[in-house]
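Observation: inputs received (chain + manganese (II) ion).
Thought: call the complex predictor directly.
Action: predict_structure
Action Input:
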Amino acid sequence: MQKEEIEKIKEAGKIAGQVVAYAKEMIQPKMPLLEIAEKIESKIEELGGKPAFPVNLSIDEIAAHSTPAWDETRTAQGLLKVDIGVHLEGYIADTAFSLDLDNKEENKKLIEAAEAALAKAVEKIDMEIPLREIGKAIEKTAGVRGFQVIRNLSGHSIGRYDLHFGVNIPNYDNNKEEDIGEGLYAIEPFTTTGLGSVKDGKPSGIYVIQKQGNVRDEFARTVLAYILTEHKTLPFCARWIYKKFGSRGIVALKRIEEAGILHQYPQLVERGAGKVAQAEHTILVTIQEKYVTTALKN
Ligand code: MN
Ligand code: MN
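Observation:
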């Protein structure tokens, strides 16, 4: 990696860390999810970054891929996972935390387990660690606290404008002896009281361009051109399109989706409807250093 790339990666991480600190203070029970998402995404821009994906606000048994709809009416409650992405010219930071808005002991324990598993993984990681060892450490840390990890969600390597790039970082011992090696990685344990896997739920309103293509409708072409310029290969959401283009934008988005150009992510729901907590950091692993980009520094 070039020195300039590393600087941008670190700067994106620093912004993400600051946004997390802001969000932890700002979020209160019963606050509209729409307001929370907009405040977080505005804070990212205020600090000079761009959202690398729509902020995920996933409640209780929804593990991930839930972002407020453009006409969202739900409010914050339960075990809330807040997953935040920041990018600077495509150099990404990906970080998440969980909040217990119900003041329940079980929620707090689940969150503590996810955080402890993340801390353990961060402590163990270096270029020469086999992937399975990271997973094993995560699974064990959750297990001694009486919780399952979600096995079909994993951390991932991160590329430029590419959120999930190549390597998966398992949350359990997957028998992969291959070393993690040099790179930028998101580590993200999910702990649960449920069965330990997720299934697809409702459509999320989060999209990504999946292939090139054309739409007949002229306005839809304008919206597509905007998506390609503004978001490139990064995820975006219907809420953002509504903000830019109004309800015509939502109709256009439908047309673009029907043309097969977009993939819409489903929400990811715990298979046993167990509650889910998540903790996530982005970490840079090079010959020179091991650097948690999204950790808040003084
Ligand atoms: Mn994330
Ligand atoms: Mn991630």
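Thought: report the result.
Final Answer: The longest strand covers residues 198-209. Residues 3-26 form the longest helix (24 residues).
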